[in-house]
Amino acid sequence: MLNILKENYFFAVVRGRDENDAKEIARYAIKGGIRNIEITFSTPNAPQVIHDLSNEFIGCEDVVIGAGTVMDADLAKQAIDAGAQFLVSPHFCKSIQEVATLNHRLYFPGCATATEVVRAMEAGCPIIKVFPGGLVGPSFIKDIHGPIPQVELMPSGGVSVKNVAAWKQAGACAVGIGSALAARVSEDGYESVTEIAKEFVKAIGE
């Protein structure tokens, strides 16, 4: 699972206005080549969305549905019961990691300092989310990799088509893409999510 997530590279961080909005953003992101789908708990009825998408893409081995904005162990349990294969939070929470380990799921906590990164690594988190990515910038990864070269880092927040290549060059093992994916939905419909997803994929290819 970890290898699939890293090979997919992009995580669509989906914050839907409602259940249908979240599902449509996810579907059109997948069409554009983004296969890791993170349904945040800021989405209304997020567990139902995770459940429905997990069933919808059950035959697609490279499409992975997970949960984001998992703030505590209770939400972690809800996400896993709904079918989430990975958990993401804006902070490190030991009890979330314990729930993830007990249920054989992956947990990626948000960290923004060397101390937080090491604490999450010691707890067994295989990927550390660099959050907020827009605040620390790609140089953060290079700086952390100096003393801790083995850590896998994934920026989220502030990742754009213009800077995604810089994040990859800095050593990011994956990137989370949030509001940028759905930026044109209100004007151009959900097809715009597919086009923006393709732009991200192309930026890495170049």
Describe this protein's structure:
The protein is an alpha/beta fold and 206 residues long. The strands form 2 sheets. Strands 3-2-1-8 form a 4-stranded parallel beta sheet. A 4-stranded parallel beta sheet has the order 4-5-6-7. Helix 2 links the parallel strand 1 and strand 2. The longest helix has 15 residues. The two termini are 26 Å apart.
Class by alpha and beta content: alpha/beta
Instruction: Give the overall average pLDDT.
Output: 97
The major β-sheet equals:
4 strands, parallel
Strands, total number: 8
How do you describe this structure in short?
This protein is of the alpha/beta class. The chain has eleven helices and eight strands.
Produce the secondary structure layout.
Blueprint: H1 2-8, E1 10-14, H2 19-31, E2 36-40, H3 46-56, E3 64-68, H4 73-82, E4 86-89, H5 94-102, E5 106-111, H6 114-123, E6 128-130, H7 133-136, H8 139-145, E7 153-155, H9 164-170, E8 175-177, H10 185-188, H11 191-205
Parallel strand pairs: 1-2, 1-8, 2-3, 4-5, 5-6, 6-7
